[in-house]
Amino acid sequence: MVDTDPDDSQSLYHRGREAMDRGDLRAAVDFFQQSIDLFPHFKTLELQGECLLTLERPTSAIIALAASATLGARPFRALYLLAQALVQIGDNRKAIEKLNEALAMQPDFASAKALLSEISNT
């Protein structure tokens, strides 16, 4: 087993956040992946998924966001982003399921309510 330093993972996470703030989403995805390779944290996976979603890579986003939702204690934001990715690939039924899970955790989540309303009417 390789001994990893959590500080290295955290440093890469922060570099990913900085790249994201600059709008360099490709670099952010790379930094987040390096961080995940050292220590898979739910927030790192969530942000990587968000970047991938914005880069119009919904299938890759689904993988990161599903992992984030599994690792997080109250992953309502990851579930919402996962629902967005599912809509992008045309799986509205599964997206509705994920939005309902998010709303069960955070009933006043306005963005999730809006997306649920939008896709339920299609």
Write structural notes for this entry.
Helix 2 runs antiparallel to helix 3, helix 4 runs antiparallel to helix 5 and helix 5 packs antiparallel against helix 6. The chain has a single domain, classed as Serine Threonine Protein Phosphatase 5, Tetratricopeptide repeat, CATH 1.25.40.10. The model has no long low-confidence stretch (mean pLDDT about 95). The chain has seven helices and no strands. The protein is mainly α.
| Largest pleated sheet | none
Percentage of residues in strands: under 5%
Task: Please compute the radius of gyration using only Cα atoms.
Answer: 15 Å
- CATH C-level label: Mainly Alpha
Helical run tally: 7
Helical proportion? over 70%
Please tell me the CATH architecture by its name: Alpha Horseshoe
Overall average residue pLDDT: 95
Q: What spatial form do the alpha-carbon principal axes imply?
A: globular
- Taking pLDDT < 50 over at least 5 consecutive residues as the criterion, the unreliable ranges are none
Q: How many domains in all?
A: 1
CATH superfamily: Tetratricopeptide repeat domain
CATH topology: Serine Threonine Protein Phosphatase 5, Tetratricopeptide repeat
What letter string, H or E per element, gives the SSE order?
Answer: HHHHHHH
- Work out the number of β strands: 0
Ends distance: 50 Å
Quickly give the structural class. mainly alpha
Provide tags for this entry.
122 residues; mainly alpha; Serine Threonine Protein Phosphatase 5, Tetratricopeptide repeat; 7 helices; 0% strand
Write a brief structural summary.
Helix content is 79%, strand content 0%. It is mainly α and 122 residues long.
